[in-house]
Amino acid sequence: MAKPAQGAKYRGSIHDFPDFDPSQDAEALYTAMKGFGSDKEAILELITSRSNRQRQEVCQSYKSLYGKDLMADLKSELSGDLARLILGLMMPPAHYDAKQLKKAMEGAGTDEKALIEILATRTNAEIRAINEAYKEDYHKSLEDALSSDTSGHFRRILISLATGNREEGGEDRDRAREDAQVAAEILEVADTPSGDKTSLETRFMTILCTRSYPHLRRVFQEFIKMTNYDVEHTIKKEMSGDVRDAFVAIVQSVKNKPLFFADKLYKSMKGAGTDEKTLTRIMVSRSEIDLLNIRREFVEKYDMSLHQAIEGDTSGDFLKALLAVCGGED
């Protein structure tokens, strides 16, 4: 698998709009929503071609020009998948992620896949911002929410990830060998069982949740040398349930984060029916971070572009807006 070079350039598909004028944009949106029926195409074209920072400025201008809340107006004009996508693009990223986490924990069932997808892939800075946004928006800490909504070892993994305390440094060879040994023991491919299962499980969790990405890449290489197995494959074989899914997501994210998201996008569209929630969540949250890299991984692995996949799987204004976020054919 091609690994992104150290310090590889991650690029989003949406950037600052060059001749940006927030009051002009606010007026254009007001006009598009005035009267009976709204000009949805004008709305989606404008919003998908501005960066998140610029959209926040448009919200401010809209409020000062019209004394109205742009988000509320958009909400009343748009509906369904299109509304979810456009309103998602309008939210500051940390608040968007906080809302997705909240939604994943609402109601009867928990959407563990969404919790894992977000918490296993965000950087320390992103996680810290999400914690602040969560507290601000829901008057409860993210940790408390996770605590009351998940349980057991899975809960411990999520809470550990939600501290945003991953090490930032490079690799340490000797420690990487020790870490690989712990992994080999817990995954039952090592010859020397040492210590009891629970303390080993905790050590394995600590390794995956707190070591830096460069260090973990080294650990995975040492693991292969030691066992002749790939760590991801072994986790899939030896573990089960949400714990397995969480560990696999961390490993995939460390190996190649854009590929992790490309796989998730592909799964959201393959087969009968579309998982619009996942599709929207990834398109919105990666649009300014690494969506171009995700597109590259997608076409390489699936032999069709993300653009083609979206075209074949969605329709109407939702399709137009997704393609605008996608930003081109590969």
Detailed description of the structure:
Helices cover 70% and strands 0% of the residues. One of its GO terms (molecular function) is calcium-dependent phospholipid binding. Keywords: Annexin, Calcium, Calcium/phospholipid-binding, Cytoplasm, Repeat. Belongs to the annexin family. It comes from Microcebus murinus.
Give short descriptive properties of this protein.
330 residues, mainly alpha, 19 helices, 70% helix
Q: Rg to the nearest angstrom? A: 22 Å
Query: Which word captures the global form?
Result: elongated
User: What's the helix-strand series?
Assistant: HHHHHHHHHHHHHHHHHHH
Largest sheet: none
Number of strands: 0
> β content, as a range?
under 5%
User: Count of DSSP helices?
Assistant: 19
Brief write-up:
It comes from Microcebus murinus. By secondary structure, this protein is mainly alpha-helical.
Any chance you could write out the topology, listing elements then pairs?
Layout: H1 22-33, H2 40-48, H3 52-66, H4 70-77, H5 80-90, H6 93-105, H7 112-119, H8 124-138, H9 142-149, H10 152-161, H11 173-186, H12 197-210, H13 213-227, H14 231-238, H15 241-269, H16 276-286, H17 291-302, H18 306-313, H19 316-326
Helix pairs in contact: 1-2, 1-3, 2-19, 4-5, 5-16, 5-19, 6-7, 6-8, 7-15, 11-12, 11-13, 14-15, 15-16, 15-17, 15-18, 18-19
